[in-house]
Amino acid sequence: MKSVERENDGDSDRTRERECYRCDRDVAPALLFRIDVAPPDALADYAHSVRFCCQDCVAAMGMLEFTEEWKEQAGLV
Ligand SMILES: [Zn+2]
Predict the structure, then answer these.
(1) Domain of life, per the record (predicted)?
(2) What secondary structure does DSSP assign to the chain, as a single string?
């Protein structure tokens, strides 16, 4: 028996922001890091860009930083 699948209009705003631009994994928007790239004025050919990226890829790029609060709790400060 096949269940009836309804078209979910709420899903229509599902965009590529759901997935990590590096590994293409489907990641919930709430768990994506925003990478905002502002090129220097001297490189005028490049545009400002924004990408959304998963935690693992941010870590792989060496850009993952813990908060000071987290470091204190972990005894790293
Ligand atoms: Zn990723």
Answers:
(1) Archaea
(2) -PPPPPP-GGGGG--GGGB-TTT--B--GGGPEEEEE---TT-TTSPPEEEEE-HHHHHHTT-----HHHHHHTT--
